[in-house]
Amino acid sequence: MMDIQEIRQFLPHRYPMLLVDRVVDVEPGKVIAGYKNVSINEDFFNGHFPEKPIMPGMLILEAMAQIAGILGFHTTGKRPADGYIYLFVGADNVRFKRQVVPGDRLDLFAEAGPSRRNIYKFKCHASVNGELAASADILVAEQVV
Question: Are 44 and 101 in contact (CB under 8 A)?
Answer without folding.
Answer: no
